[in-house]
Amino acid sequence: MTPHLLAATLPDGLTFAIAGVIALVGSLGVVLSRNPVHSALMLIMSLFGVAVLFVEQDAQFLAAVQVIVYAGAIVVLFLFVIMLLGVDRSEAIATEPMPAQRLMAVGLGILALVEIALLSRERWPLGAHSVAGKARGTGHSNVYVLGRSLFTTYLLPFEVTSALLVIAVIGAIVLARRPRTSAGPTEGEAAAAEAGGGPLVDAGELVGSGAPSAERRVEAEEALARAGDRIGEPVGEQEGLTVVRRPEQ
Amino acid sequence: MILASATGFAVPHIDYTAILPELILIGGSLVLLAAGALNVRHLPTRVYSLLSGATGVAALIAGIVLWQKVHGGGHPLTAVAHSLVIDGFSTAFVILSACIIIVSSAIADGYLRREGIAGPEFHALALLGASGAMLMAAANDFIVIFLGLEIMSIPLYVLAALDQRRAESGEAGMKYFVLGAFSSAIFVYGIALTYGATGSTNLAQIAGYLATNVSTSNGLLLAGAGLLLVGFLFKVAAVPFHMWTPDVYQGAPTPATGFMAAIAKVGGFAALLRVFFSSFHSLEASWQPILWVVAVLTLVTGAVLGLVQRDVKRMLAYSSINHAGFILLGLQAASREGMSASLYYVFVYAFLVLGSFAVITVVGGRGDTSHAIESYRGLARRQPLLGFGFAVLLLAQAGAPFTTGFLGKLYVVEAAVRSHSYALAVIAMLTGAVAAAFYLRVVFVMYSLPAGEAAPAMALADGGALATGTEPAAAVAAPAGESRGGVLVAAPPEAPAGAATGAGGGLRLRAASLGIAPSTLAGIAVTVLFTLALGIWPAPLFSFVHAAGLLF
Description:
- The complex is a heterodimer of chains A (about 250) and B (about 550).
- In chain A, about 60% of the residues lie in helices and about 5% in strands.
- Chain A is mainly α and about 250 residues long.
- In chain A, helix 1 runs antiparallel to helix 2 and helix 2 (about 35-55) runs antiparallel to helix 3 (about 60-85).
- Chain A is extended, with a radius of gyration of 28 Å.
- The N and C termini of chain A lie far apart (about 80 Å).
- Chain B is mainly α and about 550 residues long.
- Chain B has one domain (about 20-445, about 520-550).
- Chain B has helices at about 1-5, 15-40, 45-70, 90-115, 120-140, 140-160, 165-200, 205-210, 220-235, 245-250, 255-280, 285-305, 310-335, 335-365, 380, 385-400, 405-420, 420-445, 455-470, 470-475, 480-490, 500-515, 520-535, 540-545, and strands at about 80, 85.
- In chain B, a hairpin with a 4-residue loop joins strand 1 (about 80) and strand 2.
- The longest helix of chain B is centred in the first third of the chain and has 32 residues, at about 165-200.
- The interface between A and B is large, with 38 and 62 residues.
């Protein structure tokens, strides 16, 4: 029951071959690139190749999700992390920090191969066959079938997912913001501080940057000193941080 | 609709009364967030707390209406394309979740004001979490259970990390999140395997499939059921999936801990009981022995490790593990009585744990840090009302007669005996006795004299200062008569309010900084009253639980 490439039509075979080569070259590029940004871009290429293979298998929905979720969201996240850690930092990869890992990887790989070989010869231990419907020939694309069940059988889960998204947004904001008060004044004290009119922006507050380092803070304060007496206007740019003049008390 | 008819697309009927409690909670949290966003820092915390409590009351009313519809007949039993099941069991949990929200809003109010945490986030997240627990209770489909699980859990992760001034809080949130995400993944894998084995994610269809088909090799199904069990046991903190519990309970802000302990047990046990009683009922012979072992481990670990804790929050975390073992007893019995017993125990436990953590919130003081058992020394003398309430809650957890805790333990042990799990029943009672030791230790510490307290003047000033502090509480709590008398005895007329020496003034300041908000005291009073009243007169809750049967 192994699928034969030669049995497919010529366009199918060509598409498979080209997409396969793209996916393979992309994945090799991920491993072999020196520059991590290139690795991430190669990963996108590999994912696109696999997406084409999915279309070839009549799995249009999976192909779309592959492009939107993996290429669109996850690789962008990778790029964020790479940029955050510094693109130009070289990594010492010559020394293996955990030598036992290499052995374990080989062992586990062999185990997985044996498992796949055994499973492909045996019957799958499935209890029910009611799920084994026809993939092709229902007259509808799987996007149609999926959309249909999303809005009929799984209507409630589909709608409820929106609540999950709301929670994710609230949770991210609650966790990411800085504590408003460090000493923890009571409501009355906070209101009093509010009425007194606190500083608009702290000197050297870093806009759009994570943890402020000492040097950057010094730089920011120097920039602040150089700037004239325009209050509240951006007075300087330092590697992605905006310096704002603090209003005089 | 035109599109629908053109493609032969029948959108399922949506029964809004069936999902009204969930809708109210989610809507309430959105209203809170909108109010917070539109009035930056101008709304006082008590407005948010009131809004949250009112949302809980609305959900409670919707739940009671639903309950009456279910028992009056004439209500469709499944709703929204069979995704939800509306029966006595689900409605009972909806009502319980709404009660938890009401009590927890009151308790959190005092904490938020004391710590100066402005904004609606705590309440909004709690409301969303409770809606997740309701969804889990009413779910008739594994996908809905999973979504309910996530909707319940993610707010709990955030609530655990809410206190940004203490590093332990962030650590608790992180730990809970990582382990919780891991257990969710295991749960989803279980859903996938069960789907592969039975061809459906619908609980009723799975039950039907298993009732009509005999599979020659059901390895896939058993693996699926096992992984689902792991996911559930993690949520309800059963051994060996309990590792997160002490750290998270200790690190999380105390009112969040109380809410988390109550709502996670409610959601987790609601879905666990439904799935294993209805869908996997025919696999009983396979899962009963596993649950036997898990129940024993959970009971013993909770009781033994609870004994050696010096931190009261940590001690109650182990106590909650012990309670989870008791609730598992009812499931292990795999009988109708067992299910009712578990349901009863969850009800009782939710109120006990909310009240206990509310007292810990008060004693923890500003900054939420003093949770060592020594902080409780002489508490009952300084604050007789609070001490009495905590004593009742702890004794109920230990299983003292005339409390709901006793009846709950009796009920689950009876169910275990009826299903001939004698050894399990004996082990459960023994661990109950062991656990009683650490509850009683706190009670003794509370009623003992403050350490090194020789000067009677100090005690007098103390009592005098606190008599005024407990005044609003006495107006709130009904069983206040004798306790109020106690306050008066502790503050004889020779201790005038104005005669503050240096030490007395310091104590007075400390008492004021304890900051016992009337709302928190009202929350504690409700839980104590629930525990005592339904312990002495158990008929209403018993009949309620008996009427809360499963549909399938």
